[in-house]
Write a structure and sequence with these properties.
The complex is a heterodimer of chains A (about 90) and B (about 350). By secondary structure, chain A is an alpha+beta fold. Helix content of chain A is about 10%, strand content about 20%. In chain A, the strands form two sheets. Chain A has a three-stranded antiparallel beta sheet with strand order 2-3-4, covered by helices on one side. In chain A, strands 1-5 form a two-stranded parallel ribbon. Chain A starts with a strand and ends in an 8-residue tail after the last strand. By secondary structure, chain B is α+β, with helices and mostly antiparallel strands. Chain B has two domains: about 110 residues, 3-layer Sandwich (Rieske Iron-sulfur Protein); about 200 residues, Naphthalene 1,2-dioxygenase Alpha Subunit, Chain A, domain 1 (Alpha-Beta Complex), CATH 3.90.380. Chain B has five helices and 17 strands. In chain B, strand 12 and strand 13 form a beta hairpin. In chain B, helix 1 packs antiparallel against helix 5. Classes of the chains: A alpha+beta (about 90), B alpha+beta (about 350). The interface between A and B is large, with 35 and 44 residues. The structure holds fe (ii) ion and zinc ion.
């Protein structure tokens, strides 16, 4: 079960999930790469450095290929919902 | 500090602008507003007569012209001087600046930057405020603090527990995962707090009729620099919005802030609360107005103190950022970039 929320639908969305009950932040790039940190400044720097240091999340594809809305099949999908009242 | 000038800002509510001259400073520029007798459109001009700098907002409206209250220089809707006392010739340079204005979602939006970049399509929307399916209460508080402090404040709702204890803090918040998103292309920051299973506060059970436990979402959607939306969604446990974005089985409170710099050290803090339940119910409106105004004033008092502290300290003071600042840090970065972009053409023109 994955309770990660994703509300924005653009092609270049960077996400940081705060792991419940911990101090750990998980950064998820639009390319699928992930990185953990306990420092939000360090984590934004890592995310925004894309593609530098962003490992492809699966061996069978390169960074930048799939859009953010289509996570690779071997990963659990995020709980993806339309922002309430937001512009499409 | 540099303002992000090439952006739309809320200057007023539409209901504030009528046939009285209305002065308000936006991004350090004193402006005068009025509503045209002929077209009903809002006019925005620089609030200083070109002659001896007298404020036009302290002058007189005659039809769709302003007659300066000092020497009678007269300006039309475009800011062009059409009358100079005692002489027939009107100097070519006799005009005051006029600013693009758009009225949308009950707000009067103004563009202070380069005129040819003022694209109406860039104005972010808050459609609930003018939607008959919602009932709205609203206000505006002057803030004696720089606008960045208000952005910081609104991007992190964990301060609710401390600054607004007993008003809007809820016990489940500590057990709610938070996701922060940045859409780099569209310049939107979104902070989601989705409580899957929470107790229903008495106010909501009373005004919505929901019984039992609820799914409660509190989502921030910030469109820098000016428009901040807080989507508050309440539904019976397990009820989610439809795929197409419609959400008929939930109750919504849309809290809207417009954050407009007045000067480098002061801000116009516009706030509105729209709801899609208990429509027209005066008791519910009074409660939401009082509650939100109290919360806004608690923030105003705290931020006014903070501004005084910051003005007295050295510029290189080092802050500490922790996990709750994830959204605020994202906002600061985009604001900084917007200000830098607006600064470039000015520098180029000076060079
Ligand atoms: Fe607050
Ligand atoms: Zn990446």
């Amino acid at each position: 079960m994955n309770d990660r929320v994703a509300m924005l639908r653009g092609n270049t969305v960077y996400r940081i999930h705060w792991e419940l009950g911990t101090d750990v932040l998980i950064g998820v790039c639009h390319c699928g790469a992930e990185h953990e940190s306990e420092d939000p400044i360090e984590l934004w720097e890592w995310l925004l450095a894309h593609p530098e240091g962003h490992e492809p999340p699966a061996a069978d594809r390169q960074p930048d290929q799939p859009p953010a809305d289509q996570p690779p099949a071997d990963r659990e999908p995020v709980v993806d919902r339309q922002p309430v009242g937001a512009q499409a | 500090m540099t303002f992000a000038r090439n952006q739309w800002y809320v200057a007023a509510y539409g209901h504030e602008i009528g046939r009285e001259l209305f002065g308000r400073t936006i991004l350090g520029e004193p402006l005068v507003f009025y509503r045209s007798e002929e077209t009903g459109e809002v006019v925005a001009l620089a609030d200083r007569c070109v002659h001896r700098r007298y404020p036009l907002s302290e002058s007189r409206l005659e039809g769709d012209t302003i007659v300066c209250g000092y020497h009678g220089f007269t300006y039309d809707k475009t800011g062009t001087c059409v009358f100079v006392p005692g002489q027939a010739r009107i100097p070519r340079t006799a005009r005051v600046a006029s600013y693009p204005v758009v009225e949308q979602d009950t707000f009067v939006w103004v563009w202070i930057g380069e005129r040819d970049k003022a694209d109406e399509a860039l104005i972010p929307r808050a459609p609930w405020l003018a939607d008959p399916a919602y009932t709205t209460v609203c206000g505006m508080e002057p803030l004696a603090a720089r606008y960045e402090l208000l952005v910081d404040n609104l991007m992190d709702l964990s301060h609710e527990t401390y600054l607004h204890g007993g008003y809007i803090g809820t016990p489940e918040v500590a057990n709610t995962p938070i996701t922060t998103e940045v859409d780099e292309d569209n310049k939107v920051i979104y902070v989601s707090r989705h409580m899957a299973d929470a107790a229903c506060p008495p106010f909501y059970s009373k005004s919505t009729g929901i019984e039992g436990r609820i799914t409660r979402w509190q989502d921030i959607e910030y469109h820098p620099p000016c428009l901040y939306l807080l989507h508050s969604r309440i539904a019976p446990v397990g009820v989610l919005p439809n795929e197409d974005g419609t959400d008929p089985d939930a109750f919504h409170v849309e809290v809207v802030y417009a954050i407009t710099p007045e000067t480098e050290h002061s801000t116009h803090d516009f706030w509105a609360v729209a709801r899609d339940f208990a429509l027209g119910d005066q008791e519910v409106s009074d409660f939401l107005r009082e509650n939100n105004r109290t919360v806004v004033m608690q923030d105003v008092v705290a931020l006014d103190i903070l501004e005084q502290v910051i003005q007295k300290e050295p510029a290189d003071y080092q802050e500490l950022s922790v996990n709750i600042d994830t959204g605020g840090l994202a906002a600061r970065r985009i604001l900084k970039r917007m200000a830098a972009e607006s600064d470039e053409p000015v520098k180029a023109a000076r060079a």
